C-alpha cells in the first residue's frame, strides 16, 4: 500500500509541477498575445494614416498632371502665336524694303 501511496504522491507532485509550468507558459503566451495585439493596433493606425497620405498624394499628383496639360496647351498656343508674329514681322520687313 505504501508503494501505491508513494506513487500517487509522486504523480500528484509531477502533476503540480506540470500545472505550474503550463500556467507559466499560459501567462507568457497571454502577455505575448497582448503585446502583439497592441503592436497590431498601432500598425493598423499607421496603415490608415499612410493610406490617407497616399490618397492625398494621388489627388495632388492628378491635379498636377492636369495643370501640366493645361500649361502645355498654353505653351503650344503661345508658340503658334510667336510663329505668326514672326511671320508677320518678316512680311512687314520685306514690304518696307
Description:
This protein is mostly helical and 97 residues long. The protein contains 1 helix and no strands. It has one helix at 2-95. The longest helix is centred in the middle third of the chain and has 94 residues, at 2-95.
- The gyration radius over C-alpha positions equals 41 Å
- The coarse silhouette is rod-shaped
Name the poorly predicted regions. none
Strand-residue fraction? under 5%
Mean pLDDT rating: 98
Please trace the helix and strand order, writing H or E for each element.
Answer: H
Secondary structure category: mainly alpha
Q: How many helices?
A: 1
Care to count the β-strands?
A: 0
Give the % helix. Answer: over 70%
Output the keywords:
about 100 residues, microtubule binding, mainly alpha, NUDE, 1 helix, single chain, coiled coil
